[in-house]
Fold this sequence. Notes:
The chain is 41% helix and 24% strand. The protein is of the alpha/beta class.
Amino acid sequence: MELRHLRYFVMVAEELHFGRAADRLGIAQPPLSQQIKALEEEIGVHLLSRTSRRVELTTPGAFYLNEARKILAHVERAGREARKAARGEIGLLEVGFVSSAVYDRVPLLFRLMRSRYPEVTLVLQDLTTEEQVEAMKAQRLDVGLVRPPVPNAESLAIRVFWREPMVVALPQAHPLAKLRRIPIEALEEESFLQVSHHAGPGYYDQFIRICAQAGFSPRVVQEARTSQTVVSLIAGGMGVSLVPDSMRNFKRAGVVYRRLKPPEPTVDMAVMWRPDDESPALRSFLEIVLEMAEV
Length: 295
């Protein structure tokens, strides 16, 4: 049995006339009659009652018509879904992101993806850079949002799409909080709280380089897994930190953010994926990322 047999039967059942059904199908009447007869022989029942004056559905034919319509509708729907999947309009993406990513462009990225491709399911995971690299290589993650440089990611594709200045987060009562802009050299004697090297190795190394370029080695008194934890500890008066400017959107009582005097150091946000991944849904995600790119 082929799908065309079902289509032929449904057309005859709707028209109850072989001639009109043949015209709608664009075929001759004799082959249509032969196909319906072959279908009846295959399933072993009469689906249509034929006389010289009329064609009627038998009782089995009425049941078969209902099921045939369901099958054809399912096949049509499957074809539509397959075409959507090929265009990247449907599917599932496992998306990793570092915690500091959620205060500016990344939520907008997620909103655009859901708005443009509502049938692509995003499974979001708050992971460190190292965890994302490991999950990506193990194919447990489809795409990641990280702060480069990213160690051990030689086999992965990485594209920077957003660059922002770094700012100082410090207790509201700190003497430097009175300044509109802080010279980075003024932080030489401060106690630093930073996201740990394990959680963000590239980001941590960049922080060390920034301080080294200013002529000092920072005294790191506490490390944490996330920037949110760092800011919360600053609220307790435990020290200061260099954080991405977008962290200003993380409001915490007792904490203020101040710009650094030029030249301001910057930090990047990048998208990371496996270059051999041909997922259309991933392609759609990357297209939106590139639309948002500012670097």
